[in-house]
């Protein structure tokens, strides 16, 4: 496994950046792919580009602007508010996004000779996205291999981790500060610790505090 090439689905956020470092530890060669789908913040693309350049990683950007046509939701349209209601899918939901992304990632992986695809999806902080579930990823892996007549492997190192454990993984990889300072998760487009108010920031900062507290406790 060590010598093979891997492709990371990469947004420049905490999760996919942690996956990038995980992949660097696991595989001989790592490339990244970022999907451009008219995100609210072009800054997200710049952040991804900067991190990839900074780490010297082969970086591909794929234009997925058609998602804008298909999914008029809060991540792609600035005129729609980000809301989360109990028991409903959040307004950031772009239906089928991962299905599309993983299909395109697989085609790219085949072209660049990558045998492994890594995605930072996670069932633990499950926000209602059905195509972030483990069962979907396994099904998608089978479908991709049938479609391409290949043996690609989808990896989801964060699938069963909560946010605190994802911070721990970054720390174990020796990259906690890098992930904290260089990535962008905030829905309001503020890098590093973010705005502190949006759902993404709250999840991220609460996880960080939980992890740092545990680490402090363990050190005493
Ligand atoms: Zn925020």
Short description:
This is 7-cyano-7-deazaguanine synthase. Its EC number is 6.3.4.20. By secondary structure, the chain is of the alpha/beta class.
CATH architecture descriptor name: 3-Layer(aba) Sandwich
Distance between the termini: 38 Å
The helix content, as a percent range, equals: 40-55%
Order of helices and strands: EHEHEHHEHEHHH
The total of helices stands at 8
- Taken from the alpha-carbon principal axes, the silhouette is globular
Largest sheet properties: 5 strands, parallel
**How large a portion of the residues is in β-strands, by DSSP E?**
5-15%
CATH-level-4 superfamily name: HUPs
Strands, total number: 5
Mean pLDDT: 88
Unreliable stretches:
85-90
User: Could you please say which CATH topology applies here?
Assistant: Rossmann fold
Number of domains: 1
Strand order of the largest sheet: 3-2-1-4-5
Determine Rg (CA atoms, Å): 17 Å
Give the CATH class: Alpha Beta
Structural class: alpha/beta
Bound molecules: zinc ion
Catalytic activity: 7-carboxy-7-carbaguanine + NH4(+) + 2 ATP = 7-cyano-7-carbaguanine + 2 AMP + 2 diphosphate + 2 H(+)
GO molecular function, one term: zinc ion binding
EC number: 6.3.4.20
Keywords: ATP-binding, Ligase, Metal-binding, Nucleotide-binding, Queuosine biosynthesis, Zinc
């Amino acid at each position: 496994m060590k010598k093979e090439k891997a492709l990371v689905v990469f947004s420049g956020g905490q999760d996919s950046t942690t996956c990038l470092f995980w992949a660097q530890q696991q595989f001989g060669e790592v490339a990244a792919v970022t999907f451009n789908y008219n995100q609210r913040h072009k800054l997200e693309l710049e952040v991804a580009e900067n991190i990839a350049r900074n780490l010297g990683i082969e970086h591909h950007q794929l234009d997925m602007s058609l998602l804008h046509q298909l999914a008029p939701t809060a991540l792609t349209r600035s005129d729609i508010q980000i809301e989360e209601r109990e028991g409903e899918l959040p307004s950031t939901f772009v239906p089928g996004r991962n299905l599309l992304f993983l299909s395109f990632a697989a085609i790219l992986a085949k072209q660049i000779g990558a045998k492994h695809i890594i995605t930072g999806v996670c069932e633990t902080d499950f926000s209602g996205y059905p195509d972030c579930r483990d069962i979907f990823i396994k099904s998608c892996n089978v479908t991709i291999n049938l479609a391409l007549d290949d043996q690609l492997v989808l990896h989801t190192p964060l699938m069963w981790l909560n946010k605190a454990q994802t911070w721990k993984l970054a720390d174990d990889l020796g990259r906690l500060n890098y992930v904290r300072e260089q990535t962008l998760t905030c829905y309001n487009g503020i890098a590093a610790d973010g705005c502190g108010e949006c759902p993404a920031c709250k999840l991220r900062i609460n996880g960080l505090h939980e992890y740092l507290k545990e680490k402090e406790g363990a050190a005493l």
